[in-house]
Amino acid sequence: MKTLNNHTLIYDNECPMCSIYSKGFTKCGMLDEHGREAFSEMSFKNKSVIDFNRAKNEIALVDHSKNEVVYGLDSLLVIIGNSFPVLERIARIQPLYWFFRKLYSFVSYNRKQIIPSNKEYTDQSCVPEFNVKYRVGYIAFVVFFSSYVLSIFTTKLGLHLDQNFPREFIICLGQIAWQSLFLKTYLKDKIWDYVGNMMTVSLIGTILLLPALLINASPVFYIIYFGIVVSVMLLEHWRRCKILRLNAFPTISWIIYRTVVLITLLECLKFI
Hints:
The chain has helices spanning 16-27, 44-49, 52-57, 73-83, 85-91, 96-109, 111-114, 132-153, 165-187, 191-213, 219-243, 249-269; strands at residues 7-11, 36-38, 60-63, 68-71.
């Protein structure tokens, strides 16, 4: 790999994803061993040249030789392009460049909901601004993806349920509405953070269901497997609530909704 010298990547050290890929750049030699610096431990020199608030939203790359800074996707493309110029040129072709920028922002603005941190946030923490467009986009993505996978998985449970995307879509939306309605007063300004984390729990559960769709097994296997996945989701929901400094109320409400949906479906099956 060709090393990009005289550059420092200012990464979010409270974000596991950011820590992993920035460390990967130094490990493979794309940046020198001092080519990255934690946002929370930033030197005065680097802090004086970057846009502090923008760097919370988009990872900053400082070019010390020119005293210039690039942000977000451009930071990554400069690093990658130094070793793989063709890849950078391809990525900068429209509409690919537009798509990758949107994808980067989609992940960056939701990264604290995808993988939350146990640390207390302050004004100096690398926490992205709340962007309603990307948060709603993340929620919509998970709802559609989960609804589609669940509509297929439920046909394997032996409950005589047909593949019904609208049914699962309504159930997923109902979960959001239920939690938001009953917890709005309690959650207050944490409501968007909570819903984002709840969507990640749903996404984790959906991904865990995918391997089971690749095999043919008995309904008993799928019911047991589904129970295990729901248990994992419950534990993850509880863990994330603790990170958000919330009590057991959201988890209890989450369980009640799931129970109500299950009972309703079973009652409906009696008339089929």
